[in-house]
Amino acid sequence: AMALCLKQVFNKDKTFRPRKKFEPGTQRFELYKKAQASLKSGLDLRAVVQLPPGESINDWIAVHVVDFFNRINLIYGTMSEYCTERSCPIMSGGLKYEYRWQDDSKYKKPTKLSAPQYMCMLMDWIEMLINNEDIFPTRIGVPFPKQFQQVCTKILTRLFRVFVHVYIHHFDSIINMGAEAHVNTCYKHFYYFIREFSLIDHRELEPL
Q1: How many domains does the chain fold into?
Q2: Is 31 within the bounds of a domain?
Q3: Which of 95, 116, 165, 173 is 20 to 30 A from 74 in CA distance terms?
Q4: 165 annotated as a binding-site residue
Q5: Mutual orientation of helices 148-176 and 57-79 as an angle, nearest 10°?
Q6: What is the Cα–Cα distance from 90 to 98, expressed in whole angstroms?
Q7: Distance between CA atoms of 109 and 135, rounded to whole angstroms?
Q8: CA 204-164-176 angle, 5° bins
Q9: 88: annotated binding-site residue?
Q10: What are the tens digits of pLDDT across the range 127-167?
Q11: Residue 170 labelled as part of a binding site
Q12: Is 83 annotated as a binding residue?
């Protein structure tokens, strides 16, 4: 029943962005399957996030960044009808935290945006990065760039803000949709992962 309910809640048409797929036959596809299998086996999430013996840390991080992007996309896509210019004119996490958008193209300075605008910019920006072969190489034997983990830290820090906004401003909607257990599991998985590899500055975690 829970699975059926989640199928209705996380309806594919509502995904904010098309899902990024791992190509079968690649090493990363195998890693992704391994990660998904241990997740489904109901293992302790703290154990699930640990680097499997013999695997490369960058591959492991790459697989998780893409997977979290897909999942959080789905969560936000499901919430997006409740997150509007009117309900959320500022991208925030409660009264104390306001998130401004900055990138290397249109917004050179940190800029106030509404939550839906921020989410849109964020998902476009992450999608551009994970589809960039120079940053997320998919061919075997092609090395990751030196700044790979820094880029992932930036992506994950910003994805964390989606959880902050959704939990603080839209939690009643999550409960009404019966999606609370799913969102909580996704959040815990994300949290244990970033803690395992120290990928986010602990000050960023304060709102939750």
Answers
A1: 1
A2: no
A3: 95
A4: yes
A5: 30
A6: 7
A7: 24
A8: 165
A9: yes
A10: 999 999 999 988 778 899 999 999 999 999 999 999 999 99
A11: yes
A12: yes
